[in-house]
Amino acid sequence: MKVFISADIEGVTGVNDWNETELNHPDHVAAARQMTKEVAAAAQAALDLGYDVVVKDAHDSARNIIFDELPEGTKLHRGWASSPSSMMAGLDESYDAVIFIGYHAPGGRDGNPLAHTFSKSSIFSCSINGKIASEFSFNRQIANHYKVPCVFLSGDATICKEAESTITGIETLAVKEGEGGATLNIHPEEALKAIYEGVKKGLEKKEELLQEEPSHYHIGILFREHAKAYRASFYPGVTSVGPYEIAFEGEDIMDVMTTRMFIL
Q: What is the pTM of this model?
């Protein structure tokens, strides 16, 4: 039995500023340690239930997690494979469940001062089939593509609401709420205890949480700079919707993620 954990940092409790998310910035040290602790709590819950655990460090450099602070028996996918799966690199049909740690509100929405989708500097917002899309929106469909249920998500309250509205019964933990440029965060130790218990609950009902992948995707991307939208519009299958916006279609999420990989 195997569990896949995809971990980001902007949805970790206490993280409030971009400096805290950037490797080699002094403020990153505490954020990376809490990210590691939250991942470790999720991994320990899965290990205690008899699962093998693989963690994808899925933030920025993909070199944030402090490996020797994870439980023994955990494997860490570090760095970027440069594959279409991106934040889900390594996931395949052999896994039994997916867990998301440290996820956050999408670009185009409030709920976190660090809200974005894929690129805070290049993209204002993304959409899937007409709805604003988060990184979780795309990544849960990768799990669906491989027929692996998503059982738990932690992050800000906005992304937790999205998870609950799209996967009935998924276990979630809102470690923070955003208000303008501020966040109200739960205590780090409380987060660890709740993640551990939530992951256990999610894994115990994983069969109920499996979803089907949509049969078709219409993807929209609204760029912050018109030159980047113009450049992306030349990729095969991509159309220009306006000076800052492009769109493309896909029959499955891997088609979509392949196009995304080359135009962003």
A: 0.98
